[in-house]
Every structure is written in C-alpha cells, then in structure tokens.
Amino acid sequence: MFLTKEEWLAPLRGAHSARDMTLLDAAYEVLKKNTVHSPDAPWGDVPVISPWSGPCAGIWNWDSAFHAMTVSRYDTPLAKSCIDAFTAFQLPTGMFPDVIYVDGRICDNYGKPPVLPWATLTVFRRDGDREFLRRSYDRYAKNASFWEENRCDRGLFFYSAQQHPEADNYLHPRWESGWDNSPRWDEFPIVDLWAIDLNCYMVMFYRAMADMAEILGEARQGWDAKAAALAGRIEETLFDAEQAAYADRNRKTGAFVSVLSPASFMPLTIGTASRERAEAMARLAADRRKFYPGMPTVTYDCPAYSTDYWRGQTWLNVAFFAIKGLENYGFTGVAGEIREFLLSMAYDGLDRGISENYDSINRRGKFNNSFSWSAAFLIELILDR
Fold first, then answer.
1. Chain segment 295-322, per-residue pLDDT in tens
2. What distance in Å separates the CA atoms of residue 332 and residue 160, rounded to the nearest whole number?
3. Are 45 and 37 in contact (CB under 8 A)?
4. Is 275 helix (H, G, I), strand (E, B) or coil?
C-alpha cells in the first residue's frame, strides 16, 4: 500500500482540526526529508528513514521500529524496508546493533530497547506480507535468545553492553537503554538495575512473537507463557510501595531507584498493573510536581531535573507510551490533557521545526529540528486515540 501525501491526508481533514492537519503535514515532510536512498549504502539500494539528514545519517535500532510503525499508515513498502534493512545486520549472537551509518560504520557493542517485533506486527497488520513476517519472526526468535542469555537475571531483564573496557562501561549500557544520560542511572550502575521499561518491552516482544507464530501456523503457547511469567515478575518485583510507583530496582541489593520517569507507566501500557496501582500512577500523572502537564523524562520536582537531554526534557516516544497506559485504564482526562499539551507544544514550535525533544516547562524545542521519531509520534498522538 502506497499513498501520496494528499491521498493520505484528504480523508483525515474532516475529522481533525486545522492545527492537527498542519502537524500531520509537517511530520510527513520530516519523514520524507529524512528518507535515505543510495545505491552505495551498506544496506543496499533500498529506501530507509534516518533520524536526521546529513553526514551522520544511518539506520538506528528502535528508531527504525518507530519510523516503520508510522509510515506503514501510508507507505508499507517503505515501512518494511526500514525494518528489513536494519534487521539484516543481526549479529551471530542474535543481537541487533545500535546503528549502521550510511558510510558503513556499525555500532555493535550494544543494542537498544527491543521494540522491533511490536512494530513489525503493526506493519504486517496493515500490509499482510507473510514473507516479511516470516523472515522477521526468525530473526526475532534469535534476538529473544540473546536477551534471555545475556541480559536476564532471575527472570527479569537489565541493560548492558557486549564488552566492558573501562572507558565504555559507563556509557554503552546507558546508550543501550536509549535514555543516555537519564538520572535513572545516577544512583546505581545501570548494569545492576532491572529496568522497568525494558521488562515491559520484553512482554510486548513476547506477545508480538506469539501473535506472529499463530499467523505463521506455529505454536504460540511458549511465547504466551514467557509473556505471562515476565508480567508476573514485574508485578512481584518492580512496584515500590514506598513511592507508590513502578521503578527500576537494583538486582543485587534490592534497593529501588528513587527517580521516577515515564518508564514507570509502562506496566499500564502493557496492561499488567492492578487497578489500585494504576490509580496510584494516574495520581502521579496529574500532579504538577511530578508529570503534569509535560510528561518530562524525570519528575518536575526531581533534584536532578534539568533541560539536559534525558534529564527533564519531554521526549515524545516515551510520553506516548505513558499516555497509552493511562488510557488503557480509563484515565482519559489526564491522558488527553497531556496529549493536548504535547501537540500544542509541537505546533507552537513549528517555526523551528519538529524537534528531537522539548523543554517540558517553557515548551521550546531543542537539539535536532527535523527529527524523524518525533514526527512519527506526533502522527501517532493525533491518529492513535
């Protein structure tokens, strides 16, 4: 399925505001601008979407998943190309690298959160290409084994890196998390933490694999069992009663991380939280000292809060998952208000472009001003509600 911009936007005009249509148009243009198609690219003569344009263009791990998820709304060949081109670089261990640059460099010492299977199933449901699903499923089965064999301790997952020279031991596991310099990692070494988001992404991974297996005529029960077991471990282990919130936890000492983030809402996103725990999280979402209205990457009252990248900025990808979690439990009021804040913030900043992230207080965009996954999640914030 391929639609031109006008073919895609025309049916949406009657159902969406002028503001939202402007955002959809701008987001489409960012994704188009950042599409790379070069016969000399290491992934071959196929189109892919880079997070940005320029000399550091390339295909990133979870970025590719996010891009594919959204462009499959109007261009499924491009969506499949984003996923196929990236997953073809799977390592013999089963790990997917972090990035393949257009100049041939590969960062393969660490990966990224495993959202590719979830995105792949989204693409398939809009396209129906079973051959695409088959080759993706086989690659993801190997990737699941990698996570289980290299990033799992007593049934829960943690971020790490493949080698640990002293200079990289601090940075590379943080980069694997995708949260780079987040205060989540300030109190304890990241490799010592059961990360709440990673474990929820793995539940999404297993559930997507179960659905893919069933579509392909294979048994789904093993994947379902893994998802259920992991969901149980999350609920047993990663809710901090003292903070009344889900939190990262030191797997060696049992201590919880005191920093809360949008990742804390992920058990609501996957639907494993009890009603009581979901209500506790909804109170945090509505609290101006915590996450309201900008869903910053740490709470507004966190001592480490700043405008330095993942230390307080609003990132649309993790904010989107938090909003979906609140909506799953019927907290549509606060979810809708946060969604509206994000859309208005992005619209007001369009004179600069669609930014990599946004100041969660003064609403100004920061860093790259033509960022692909921000464009993708603006589309999702408008259409997936």
1. 999 999 999 999 999 999 999 999 999 9
2. 36
3. yes
4. helix
